[in-house]
Design goal:
The chain is mainly beta. The protein has no helices and 16 strands. It has a 14-stranded antiparallel β-sheet with strand order 1-2-3-4-5-6-7-8-9-10-11-12-13-16, with no helix packed on it. A two-stranded antiparallel ribbon has the order 14-15. It is globular, with a radius of gyration of 23 Å.
Length: 324
């Protein structure tokens, strides 16, 4: 904040890490392995008070991800995002805000992408509601009409309503609830689908058992529907996508021939339970159990000639961590 009418916020983040493909993208598009990745993010927003109950907000954010060379990097594509928004905000009370929003996102994928578009845009217009639901707690719901555009003129565009909800409640001094809802197109790296429609929700419950102990329960469910039917057969043999052997099939997806023409649909359900122990002011101990079940309609053919579900799995994970 730099005056009584103007507000300025800036944030930046850099990470060079190894991520699990289970958690690489919202909705859980990938299901095994790890991948080195470098990410950069920056965000700038400006607010202007127009009066006692009205204000304007605008902002821009940029993010990029670069996947380093590894055994799994061939299935990823470097990409960058740029978001721009403009909001007109109306205060309807000391705790409530309504707003109208214009939003645009530009996506640029790396040159290595041969099946997905190099550039596309997401434009939306919508309304939202924000409410203070407790001390340092805010809840927000946004509904918009969203359209995607591809500069090459190919692929299936998305047109429809999207939803983003983030609700925070504290029913008691010892209990906190966090609910997230989403219906939105998200970036895809799979086959010829430039995006997938993700519909999902997450419920997180935190309960303090005393001054030093607490538990956390998380339940997450996602349904993903991809934009385009699976493509395996090319118009003619050869080219960058069909090198070994040159049989007229896309090398990377040759095993998905039984699913050619089908639209990929996934269901991902994740539950976890964690025990938190505040050992001291400078140390926390966490032990957790996570169960994840991933179902998909995609069928592949194995080297033995038998069909199987490559994106169907069930996992159990145990985590122990200490932070200081």
């Amino acid at each position: 904040v730099f005056s009584r009418r103007w507000r300025l916020e800036f944030a930046a983040r850099y990470a060079d890490t190894i991520t699990s493909m289970l958690n690489s993208v919202p909705g859980g598009e990938y299901q095994y392995g790890t991948q080195p990745v470098t990410t950069e993010e920056a965000r700038l927003s400006v607010g202007l008070l127009l009066g006692a109950t009205q204000s304007l907000e605008t902002g821009i954010s940029r993010a990029s991800s670069a996947f380093q060379t590894s055994a799994t990097s061939a299935v990823f594509t470097d990409y960058g995002l740029q978001d721009i928004f403009l909001r007109y905000v109306l205060d309807s009370g000391p705790q409530n805000q309504f707003y109208m929003q214009l939003y645009r996102q530009d996506v640029i994928q790396g040159e290595e992408s041969l099946l997905q578009p190099d550039r596309y845009q997401i434009n939306s217009v919508g309304v939202g509601f924000r409410r203070d639901t407790g001390r340092d707690l805010t809840s927000e719901l946004r509904v918009a009409y969203t359209v995607t555009r591809f500069t090459e003129g190919l692929w299936t565009p998305f047109e429809g309503f999207t939803l983003e909800g983030d609700f925070n409640l504290a029913p008691s001094p010892r209990t906190a609830l966090h609910l997230k809802l989403r219906r939105a197109p998200l970036i895809s790296f799979f086959n010829v689908s430039a995006y997938y429609l993700n519909e999902g929700g997450t419920l997180e419950i935190n309960r303090a058992l005393g001054r030093a102990l607490g538990i956390r329960l998380i339940a997450d469910a996602n349904w993903n529907t991809y934009s385009d039917p699976i493509l395996v057969t090319l118009p003619a043999p050869g080219g960058d996508l069909d090198q070994n052997p040159q049989n007229g099939l896309i090398d990377a997806y040759e095993n998905l021939l039984p699913s050619e023409g089908d639209v990929r649909e996934d269901r991902v359900v994740t539950t976890s339970l964690a025990l938190l122990w505040h050992v001291s002011r400078a140390m926390d101990f966490v032990t957790a159990y996570q169960h994840q079940e991933f179902d998909s309609n995609v069928i592949a053919t194995g080297t033995d000639g038998k069909n199987y579900h490559p994106y169907g799995y069930e996992s159990h994970r145990f985590l122990v961590s200490v932070s200081v």
